[in-house]
């Protein structure tokens, strides 16, 4: 749910299908929707004696609470029954094989995900096409083919062990590579080490690691990492309050984890998430403490003062002492530290803090806030430059500034698209900057900027090419529409050129709207499939709750203003229909994780507006999330159901608690498909199990409800993290089948 959630993308499309036996017939456009016989649904036990008491003595039953015990035989049996039903329902498509062939064809192109440099060596993340996991390669030069350095594909037969590219880190001398592995998509990871020159993997493995950066000390002897000490096994990690008391440990290379030293902890604030940075000069550890995805405190420890001898709790000097904004370390020179912050700057700005005199009154603006556009990323390079990536009307813009004065130097020309902030690589002392650029129709260009050259020209290092795709046949249109309160909301529309606005186009509307995550023009195979093989309209709504227009845009779509996100999304659907891009019978909506909360709320509030809802790894109960181990980290975004004010708005919109099947023979809920995974420890699968069971229970007394409600539970998978290509394609096929069955849209080669 926190940032990296992120943002997995759309996962949808269409396929013609014929259903028989217990199922009604599929349709072409205009015919009746394919149905599922409700008598075939599992009939899970309801325990009417389970309830919770909320503020104002409000008692709310939770009859499916038992499903939260994922290890029980009853829950396991239910999962098998649900998967069996879903497989039977979706398996009858005469085009499944053809669709799988097409998806494999689209995925089967050599692609570079990122490129970076450490010392004299270059490294890349790449995939030869259908590999389940991306591979780390090492290169002698920018143009060499490279050799395999780390291949996660050999670590498991089914491709479910993956490498976390965002957290990998080299020692300062570039000789040791520290990296995290995860199994079955879990947020829990193991920490490993590999020697770059010798190729040896170190014997020590560090466990209980989660939500951490890897911070090497500049003596190359060890690193800091965040972990939990009170989790012993998978069952323990699922217990309520099991994920508190995070600590920052120091690990000396070549020793056992049992010898690791607790360097930073906050015993009086057990819910703090702890992370940080090592300063560019190597002298300081910068520590960040936060209750979740929101505001944070900053502390600094002088490592040079103790000669890098970490023997216990470090002496921390408080720098940012009020939990009122976000602060991110960017660079430093001497005692002057540069931070990116939204303190008094909704669109972010860069400030300098003298750590020897950190009084807020002495803070200085280095790069002031842009009144219109949000500063998304800042990197220091070559000891004198800052590269700044802005979001300008939902597209990336790259600028070069002076490190010490903040003065603007140059803007780089890029097409409408996105710079992936996770794949911008440089070091303050290095003249080289690498970044990955994508657009809706560009599957990735890796640029290199040599800041030692006076021209500051961008050089293309690698450019990915999608097979059998002519981007000139398609159009990307940005529109702005009014939400319920009159706010102008941006939305991208993708389609084949020559589209007829006659209301008969199958359309897919995607949204997220949370955690300040910005839906920029990133490339995705499922979008290409939708607009090319289904002649569909793809709509990407940049609703409030995201970060497209800074922190105010985010704040206007969270907590007691969360309804704004739902209103924005419903207004997007109304726009598509009013402008004759599509009609209700052909409109599918899709969201993931926090976007699944969006799907559930809109399903309940406007069931008349959509034909199909596909909701993935979804937050569907905003009253019960504090029962899960890391639920407390969601409170800054959603509020706490134990708080009277928060409870009032949460209860009004919580998807699980607001299901209302229309009591009208001419109305019903749209067709609903939920997808989840048995190892999702960020948004556990019981959210979806309880919601689908409640949907069906409420529909029993409404014979007009003919549209199907189904759920797909992936085995050995998590919150879309490290999902193998093979599993991803299989999930796409199933989702496309469901959409075509319930809209009548057609697939063509």
Give me the secondary-structure topology.
Layout: E1 51-54, E2 58-61, H1 73-90, H2 96-107, E3 111-118, E4 121-127, E5 135-139, E6 147-150, E7 161-163, E8 169-170, E9 176-183, E10 189-195, E11 206-209, E12 215-216, E13 222-227, H3 234-237, E14 247-252, E15 261-264, E16 273-278, E17 284-290, E18 297-302, E19 317-320, E20 327-333, E21 336-341, E22 349-354, E23 364-367, E24 374-381, E25 385-391, E26 396-402, E27 408-412, E28 418-425, E29 432-439, E30 442-450, E31 458-463, E32 474-482, E33 488-496, E34 507-510, H4 525-533, E35 537-541, H5 550-555, H6 562-578, E36 587-592, H7 594-605, E37 612-616, H8 635-638, H9 644-653, E38 671-677, H10 686-699, E39 709-714, H11 725-743
Parallel strand pairs: 34-35, 34-36, 36-37, 37-38, 38-39
Antiparallel strand pairs: 1-2, 3-4, 4-5, 5-6, 7-9, 8-9, 9-10, 10-11, 12-13, 13-14, 14-15, 16-17, 17-18, 18-19, 20-21, 21-22, 22-23, 24-25, 25-26, 26-27, 28-29, 29-30, 30-31, 32-33, 33-35
Helix pairs in contact: 2-11
Please state the CA-atom Rg, rounded to the nearest Å.
Answer: 26 Å
Strand-residue proportion: 25-35%
Total beta strands = 39
Tally the helices: what do you get? 11
- The order of strands across the largest sheet is 32-33-35-34-36-37-38-39
- The residue-averaged pLDDT reads 92
Distance between the termini: 37 Å
Uncertain stretches of 5 or more adjacent residues: 1-33, 231-241
- Helix/strand-derived category reads alpha+beta
Shape: globular
Give the proportion of residues in helices.
Answer: 10-25%
- Specify the biggest β-sheet: 8 strands, mixed
């Amino acid at each position: 749910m926190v940032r990296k959630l992120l943002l997995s993308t759309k996962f949808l499309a269409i396929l013609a299908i014929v259903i028989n036996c217990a199922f009604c017939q599929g349709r072409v456009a205009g015919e009746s929707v394919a149905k599922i016989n409700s008598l075939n649904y599992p009939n899970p036990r309801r325990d009417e004696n389970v309830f919770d008491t909320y503020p104002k003595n409000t008692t709310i039953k939770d009859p499916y609470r038992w499903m939260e015990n994922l290890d029980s035989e009853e829950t396991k049996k239910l999962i098998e029954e649900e998967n069996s039903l879903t497989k039977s329902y979706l398996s009858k498509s005469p085009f499944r094989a053809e669709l799988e062939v097409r998806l494999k064809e689209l995925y089967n192109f050599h692609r570079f995900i990122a490129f970076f440099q450490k010392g004299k060596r270059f490294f890349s993340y790449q995939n030869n096409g259908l590999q389940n996991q991306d591979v780390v390669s090492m290169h002698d030069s920018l143009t060499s083919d490279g050799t395999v350095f780390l291949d996660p594909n050999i670590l498991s037969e089914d491709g479910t062990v993956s490498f976390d590219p965002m957290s990998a880190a080299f020692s300062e001398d570039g000789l040791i590579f520290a990296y995290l592995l995860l199994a079955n998509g879990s947020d829990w990871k193991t920490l490993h080490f590999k020697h770059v020159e010798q190729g040896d993997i170190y014997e020590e493995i560090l466990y209980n690691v989660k939500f951490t950066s890897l911070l090497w000390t500049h003596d190359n002897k060890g690193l800091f990492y965040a972990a939990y000490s009170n989790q012993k096994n998978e069952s323990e990690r699922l217990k309520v309050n099991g994920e508190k008391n995070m600590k920052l440990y120091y690990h000396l290379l070549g020793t056992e984890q049992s010898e690791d030293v607790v360097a930073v902890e906050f015993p009086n604030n057990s819910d703090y998430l702890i992370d940080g940075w090592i300063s560019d000069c190597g002298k300081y550890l910068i520590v960040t403490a936060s209750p979740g995805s929101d505001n944070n405190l900053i502390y600094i420890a002088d490592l040079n003062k103790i000669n890098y001898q970490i023997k216990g709790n470090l002496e921390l000097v408080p720098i940012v002492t009020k939990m009122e904004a976000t602060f991110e370390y960017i660079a430093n020179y001497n005692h002057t530290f540069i931070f990116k912050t939204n303190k008094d700057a909704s669109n972010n700005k860069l400030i300098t803090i003298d750590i020897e005199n950190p009084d807020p009154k002495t803070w200085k603006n280095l790069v002031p806030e842009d009144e219109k556009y949000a500063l998304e990323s800042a990197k220091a390079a070559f000891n004198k430059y800052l590269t700044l990536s802005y979001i300008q009307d939902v597209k990336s813009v790259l600028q070069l500034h002076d490190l010490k004065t903040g003065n603007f130097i140059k803007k780089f020309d890029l097409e409408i698209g996105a710079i992936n902030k996770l794949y911008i690589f440089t070091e303050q002392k290095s003249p080289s900057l690498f970044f990955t650029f994508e657009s809706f129709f560009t599957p990735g260009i890796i640029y290199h900027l040599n800041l030692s050259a006076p021209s500051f020209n961008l050089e293309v290092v690698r450019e990915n090419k999608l097979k059998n795709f002519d981007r000139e046949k398609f159009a990307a249109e940005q529109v702005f529409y009014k939400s319920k309160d009159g706010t102008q909301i941006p939305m991208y529309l993708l389609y084949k050129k020559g589209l007829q606005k006659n209301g008969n186009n199958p359309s897919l509307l995607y949204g997220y709207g949370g955690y300040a995550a910005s839906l920029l023009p990133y490339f995705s195979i499922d979008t290409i499939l939708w607009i090319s093989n289904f002649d569909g309209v793809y709509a990407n709504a940049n609703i409030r709750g995201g970060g497209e227009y800074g922190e105010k845009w985010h704040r206007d779509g969270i907590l007691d203003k969360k309804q704004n996100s739902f209103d924005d999304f419903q207004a997007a659907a109304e726009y598509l229909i009013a402008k004759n891009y599509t009609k209700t019978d052909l409109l599918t909506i899709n969201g993931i994780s926090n976007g699944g909360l969006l799907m559930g709320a809109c399903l309940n509030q406007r069931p008349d507006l959509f034909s199909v809802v596909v909701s993935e790894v979804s937050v569907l109960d905003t009253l019960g999330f504090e029962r899960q181990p890391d639920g407390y980290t969601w409170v800054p975004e959603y509020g706490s159901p134990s708080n009277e004010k928060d409870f009032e708005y949460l209860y009004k919109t919580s998807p699980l608690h607001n299901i209302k099947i229309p009591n009208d023979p001419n109305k019903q809920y749209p067709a609903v498909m939920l997808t989840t995974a048995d190892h999702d420890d960020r948004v556990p699968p019981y959210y979806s199990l309880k919601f689908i069971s409640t949907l069906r229970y409420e529909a029993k007394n409404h014979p007009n409800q003919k549209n199907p409600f189904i759920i797909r539970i992936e085995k050995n998978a998590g919150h879309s993290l490290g999902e193998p290509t093979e599993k991803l394609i299989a999930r796409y096929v199933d989702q496309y089948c469901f959409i075509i069955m319930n809209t009548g849209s057609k697939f063509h080669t």
